Amino acid sequence: MAGVEQRSGRRTAAHGFYKGHSVHAAPGVHEYAVELVRAALPHGGRVLEVGAGCGALALRLRDAGLDVVPTDLDPPHDWIHRLDLDDPQWTDETQGPFDMVVCVETLEHVENPRQVLRSIRSLLRPGDKLLVSTPNVTHPHSRLKMFLRGAPFIFGPRHYHEPGHITILPDWMLTEHVRLAGFDDIQVTRGGDTFYTGLTRAAYRVEMALLALLGLRRRAQHGEGICTFVTAVAV
């Protein structure tokens, strides 16, 4: 996809590994994504992953019994297919049909997320499923960062070029993009944890306790809810 900023070269710092493949997402994000895909496709199905990066999530999904076709703008492995949704060159593997498209922690890297969602919708039949996620800029920690420095958590000048977080998508905007791209039955949940450790982790916990006293509570279905997940059905 044009605008994903060469995810094999510009991606969020790795936070662990899965079968030797770097996990370039916040802790817990891939695990929660697998839960949501399995809930949407309890009997299995064919899944296209957009923005697969190093392939860690694709391997998790395959281990969960899904038939996964991973794609990326600049694939780091020969088993990941190249796909640019702004100028798609379809192959037998990537043209579908698919039961679900998964696009985890990718839309914040693209210049035109609604166009990407329209391209994804073109691969799906009515009733097929979508899962997307992006950093949760409404999380209390992110809101405090916005108040103090004018940019949410993992956005701003330091993150614009590396890892290429160029598009901020609050919940209302992401769900509206999804709806206008041709989806319905839109559900919003939150999952994933911060990657802080040591003293920074201790300071973060104090911060969260103080924010909770002010009425800014975390509401998450999985972990700390540092990322927003949207599931939807193609119409």
Can you describe this structure?
The protein is of the alpha/beta class. The chain has a single domain, classed as 3-Layer(aba) Sandwich (Rossmann fold), CATH 3.40.50. 29% of the residues lie in helices and 23% in strands. It has a 7-stranded mixed sheet with strand order 5-4-3-6-7-9-8, with helices on both faces. Strands 1-2 form a two-stranded antiparallel sheet. The model is unreliable at 1-11 (pLDDT under 50).
Helix and strand content put the structural class at alpha/beta
CATH homologous superfamily classification? Vaccinia Virus protein VP39
Poorly predicted segments: 1-11
If you average the pLDDT, what whole number results?
90
Separation of termini? 23 Å
Can you write the helix and strand succession as a string? EEHEHEEEHEHHHEHE
The CATH topology annotation reads as Rossmann fold
What is the CATH architecture descriptor? 3-Layer(aba) Sandwich
Q: How many distinct folded domains?
A: 1
| Major beta sheet, strand line-up | 5-4-3-6-7-9-8
Radius of gyration: 17 Å
CATH top level?
Alpha Beta
Q: Based on Cα principal axes, name the global outline.
A: globular
The percent of residues in helical segments reads 25-40%
Number of strands: 9
> How many helix segments?
7
Major sheet = 7 strands, mixed
Beta-strand residue percentage: 15-25%
Pfam families: Methyltransf_23
InterPro entries: SAM-dependent_MTases_sf (IPR029063)
GO molecular function: methyltransferase activity
Keywords: Methyltransferase, Transferase
